[in-house]
Predict the structure.
Amino acid sequence: LLRGLFVTGTDTGVGKTLVSAGLMHRYRLRCPLQPLRYWKPIQTGTEEDDDTADVMRLGGCPPSEILSQGVRLPQPLSPHLAARLSGQSITLDPLVNLVTAEPPSRWVVEGAGGALVPINDSELMADLMARLALPVLIVSRSTLGTINHTLLTIEALGARSLSVVGVVMVGPNNPENRCAIEAYGGVPVVGEMPNFQPVTPELLGRWATTALDPSSHLSQFLG
Ligand SMILES: Nc1ncnc2c1ncn2[C@@H]1O[C@H](COP(=O)(O)OP(=O)(O)O)[C@@H](O)[C@H]1O
Ligand SMILES: [Mg+2]
């Protein structure tokens, strides 16, 4: 059984990669005997996007904190379509085998897109979460519309018996939206990430070590 968290989002581009890098800053020193490591199992749009490289830079990660293998597809599309256009079909078994063969670690696994993004003809990103049996952290926006998107994501994950352990909201602090997500979703908001201008490893690291999960709610999974 893997230890760690699966980082999903209410959408693509919400901030999953920045939050993942923040988690590396926040939790890498908690348990030096079992390293904290980042893994991106499925990356599409590789001509423009490389979340693994972004996390290494923004999270200050040495190569030992990274599992760099996975499904890598050039087109910036949903995994099911990017794979089809590359003449491939993504299967979950090799991905699960890849990570379970690694030495015991605390994993930060970043999904692609959101929870119900298709991976192949019959499986969704939520099926990968279920196969890895990791608790889930949701990254959402802080702005208008987020209550609906976040509650829909919580409901979809709950319907699949996945454990949603927290939400990180990205954008200008919005106490009413935070309150509504906690009240109606029954999930704690463990961080509010401001818009960094510019995004630097130093600003992200300072935020993560002071304001990401300050009550250490996630330490039962990452500590
Ligand atoms: N807190 C933030 N401040 C400034 N820019 C951000 C912030 N969060 C995300 N971004 C920018 O938004 C884009 C998408 O963020 P990213 O973390 O890659 O999203 P995802 O992994 O969910 O697709 C990136 O260009 C990133 O630099
Ligand atoms: Mg990303």
About this structure: The chain is about 40% helix and 20% strand. The longest helix spans residues 146-159. Residues 9, 12-18, 170, 193, 195-196, 199 surround adenosine-5'-diphosphate (ligand 1) (CB under 6 Å).
